[in-house]
Amino acid sequence: MPLHEGPRRPGEHRMSVNPFYGPANPVGDMAEAPPTHRLPDRPMAPATAHQLVRDELMLDGNARLNLATFVTTWMEPEAGVLMAECRDKNMIDKDEYPRTAELERRCVAMLADLWHAPDPAAAVGCSTTGSSEACMLAGMALKRRWARRNSDRYPGARPNLVMGVNVQVCWEKFCNFWEVEARLVPMEGERFHLDPRAAAELCDENTIGVVGILGSTFDGSYEPVAELCAALDALEERTGLDIPVHVDGASGAMVAPFLDEDLMWDFRLPRVASINTSGHKYGLVYPGVGWALWRDADALPEELVFRVNYLGGDMPTFALNFSRPGAQVVAQYYTFLRLGRDGYRAVQQAARDVATGLARRIEALGDFRLLTRGDQLPVFAFTTAPDVSAYDVFDVSRRLRESGWLVPAYTFPANREDLSVLRVVCRNGFSADLAELLAQDLERLLPELRRQPRPFTRDKGAATSFHH
Ligand SMILES: *Cc1c(COP(=O)(O)O)cnc(C)c1O
Fold first, then answer.
1. Angle at CA 37, nearest 5°, toward 26 and 33?
2. What is the best residue among 72, 174, 216, 281 to mutate for testing ligand 1's pocket, by most ligand atoms within 8 Å of CB?
3. Could you tell me whether strands 245-248 and 272-278 are parallel, antiparallel, or unpaired per DSSP bridges?
4. Where are the domains of the chain?
5. CA-CA distance, 256 to 465, in Å (whole number)?
6. Is 168 close to ligand 1, i.e. is its CB under 6 Å away?
7. Cα separation of the two ends of the chain
8. What are the transmembrane regions (predicted)?
């Protein structure tokens, strides 16, 4: 979201108000159209204001056709009702809304169990506004633990965090805001995420932790968390450096437990200190809710925890925000209760089936090369085949927009800036039928794209700033 500026010229532009929108008197009520960038002087009728806002929002894209986002765009009507009923509850008022607080606590307990905390009762965790806040909290805990262990050298020494160049932008923010050096493992050849050995080599006595991503937003692949832990075990044997791992499971921490039960990526690995997920991604809740969990109280320094009133006692909290809506947390509990393990497995499997099926269908068109196949996150990335020179991925993205599909195209980071891809995120609600319609639209465009004299030049810099 841009940091918005104020109005450039006073009275820049007034809204045009259809006289028919007035509630009672089409002439008198609409004597003065409200300004757009200044608080209007006078109130207007609620029905009129509602209609004006709705009219403008018609031009937003259709969320269900947005294949760029990981964030939930469909929930059951019952969930919508529950959220509307809870929209007046402030998550921080634990004493006023003790049942909402209790539901949050149950969600944390369920996730601790799902992610195999050695002692789920000892795991600590909290809800957040999303994974970005959860990652900030987890990063802070890593930094504080490192600072404690190195109090003879810090302040002074400069802490660093090791991760793949494919990390989501929230980790760049963390490093920037909290003054931690970001040490990035570059991509190499057909490896589009972190290499465990290369990550271990970047570690030193100032490394607060290593981030493993489940899975990468660039191509939907899972990073090899178990191999990363093994590489850090070997490092510890060689050097004595004991470096914790944080798993950024924004998407995958709600996919792998159901579809890849044997994959070792969670608290079963002793080196994994903390995990985050986005409740509003494959947790299947509308934005914004996220979760951060630490394997035990040792992993979360006590001095970062604040206490608020709760039923005459106090309740520990860890958050950047103070006030925050309770509705999303309630909706997360509803979804856990509603689906259970088997329900989540069925929903995520359906998304994976759509992703792998659509990837195969696109591969069969002959013009494209798949980088991933949707068999980890239900997400895949593809590029044009080597012999395609008439058009590029940016042309495909732009032309698909004509039919309403948002399929982002972007260029990879170091050392694969030569590679540009399209990415499709298959979420609950993007059905096999919708996927088939997308494939048909793409197929129909191909003859025209192939007849282009060359890829059309445009601002590829803007296209590459895509950061989901
Ligand atoms: C989406 C995402 C984030 C940021 O999560 P929000 O919930 O959007 O704040 C962080 N890391 C990864 C890997 C993601 O996919």
1. 15
2. 281
3. parallel
4. 77-335, 342-461
5. 29
6. yes
7. 12
8. none
What contacts 455, CB < 8 A, 6 or more positions away?
389, 390, 391, 392, 394, 395
Determine the 3-state secondary structure of 169 from DSSP: helix
Which CATH number applies to 77-335: 1.50.10.10, 1.25.40.10, 3.40.640.10, 3.90.650.10?
3.40.640.10
- Nearest atom in ligand 1 to the alpha carbon of residue 133 is 9
86-100: pLDDT as tens digits: 999 999 988 899 999
Distance CA 159, CA 227 (A): 24
Q: What are phi and psi of 200, to 5 degrees?
A: -60, -35
Q: pLDDT for 369-426, tens place per residue?
A: 999 999 999 999 999 999 999 999 999 999 999 999 999 999 999 899 999 999 999 9
For ligand 1, whether the C-beta of 274 sits within 6 Å is no
34 by Cβ neighbours in 10 Å (0-12 / 13-18 / 19+) ranks as middle
Q: Within a 10 A sphere around the Cβ of 296, how many other Cβ atoms? A: 15
Q: Which amino acid is at 137?
A: L
- pLDDT at 265 (0 to 100): 98
Whole-model pTM over 0.85: yes
The single residue listed with the structure tokens 């050097």 is 239
**Distance from residue 277's CA to the centre of ligand 1 (Å):** 8
- Ligand 1 center from residue 268 Cα (angstroms): 23
When pLDDT is cut at 50, 70 and 90, the band that residue 30 belongs to is low
In angstroms, rounded to a whole number, what is the distance separating the alpha carbons of residues 88 and 458?
46
Helix, strand, coil shares of the chain, percent, nearest 5, are 40, 15, 45
| Residue carrying the six token digits 């965090």 | 161
Tell me if 269 sits within 8 A of 226, measured CB to CB.
Answer: yes
Distance of alpha carbon 378 from alpha carbon 332, whole angstroms: 21
Among 3.40.50.2000, 3.90.1150.160, 3.65.10.20, 3.40.225.10, what is the CATH number of 342-461? Answer: 3.90.1150.160
